[in-house]
Design brief:
Blueprint lengths: L10 H53 L45 E7 L27 E9 L16 E8 L2 E2 L4 E5 L1 E10 L13 E3 L12 E11 L9 E4 L17 E4 L3 E9 L4
Keywords: Membrane, Transmembrane, Transmembrane helix
Organism: Thalassolituus pacificus
Protein name: PilW family protein
Length: 288
């Protein structure tokens, strides 16, 4: 009986096997890293988009209330507050119920005027912009102003300076320049708000003319509120994670915001890894 000799692998074969194993491992790791990065980017963009959809839906619904009066024969009221004076306070301070126009990272301020009433059948008409019931402190027919603004690096008990949750959209409701309730945060992760106002051209006694152009209020002084028929709103929202996309410098243009400035901090230009998203809506004013 012949016994066959068994031979082991040679050093060359072992080296080839090791190299092939390393190559396979390298590609597998690359695929895993790429998949993880893609998932992270998709998740970051989804966060920014979902946040933006919520904020824009809220602002769209609230802006439609501009100029609201409960009765058809009631005299119309001005749909938005006048422009802020030169030395204007910041909300929620007293007398900050005004429209602020900015073309930089300071963002616009949206100031919606409407009538307080308990007779409309909608509980919302008797609340402030955050849902606080005002029936005990406001009278029928009072004209309220809901002010929305972006506050960057907002610090509270639940946030730290310069984190993902401290760029917020806030709201407070005023009556005669005095807040009727505490200001509240509507949403976190909001970095920009810009508003343009749609105006109809020329004389239109029957109010049938469509909007001809969208402008900033400070471009049509003195303001003819009778000609304002719509509002176009743009927001910039961000992901809550600080590391979702590749490091790069990215610029965002919201409506009439300035894309270029001597000071980059005054534009919507960022150098980081944060996913952001612009969303825009146009709101017809049914009460005008």
């Amino acid at each position: 009986m012949m016994i066959k000799k068994q031979r082991g692998m040679t050093l060359v074969e072992l080296m080839i096997a090791a190299v092939l194993g390393m190559i396979v491992t390298y590609f597998i790791i690359n695929i895993m890293i790429s998949s993880s990065r893609t998932a992270m980017q998709s998740d970051g963009l989804a966060q920014a988009q979902e946040n933006g959809r919520f904020v824009l839906s809220w602002l769209h619904s609230e802006t439609r209330r501009a100029g609201y009066v409960p009765g058809i024969i009631d005299a119309r009221i001005q749909p938005f507050a006048d422009l802020c004076a030169a030395e204007f306070p910041l909300p929620p301070a007293n007398n900050a119920d005004c429209t602020f126009e900015a073309n930089d990272r300071a963002s616009d301020r949206l100031a919606i005027r409407r009538t307080f009433t308990t007779a409309s059948g909608s509980a919302k008409d008797a609340m402030d912009c955050t849902g606080v019931d005002l029936t005990a402190i406001r009278a029928e027919g009072d004209v309220l102003t809901d002010v929305y603004w972006v506050e960057r690096n907002f610090v509270s008990a639940n946030t730290a300076n310069n984190d993902a949750y401290d760029d917020v959209l806030r709201c407070v409701t005023y009556f005669n320049g005095i807040p009727v309730a505490n200001a509240q945060v509507i949403a976190s992760g909001v970095e920009g708000l810009q508003v343009l106002y749609g105006i109809r051209p020329g004389e239109d006694p029957d109010r049938n003319t469509n909007v001809s152009r969208y402008v900033a209020l400070n471009d049509i002084l003195p303001i003819d509120w009778d000609s304002v028929r719509a509002a176009r709103i743009a927001i910039l929202t961000r992901a809550f994670s600080d590391n979702t996309i590749n490091l790069d410098t990215r610029s965002y243009i919201l409506l009439d915001s300035n894309p270029i400035s001597v000071d980059p901090l005054q534009t919507f230009t960022f150098t980081d890894r944060i996913a952001r998203h612009i969303q825009t809506t146009t709101v017809y004013l049914p009460n005008e």
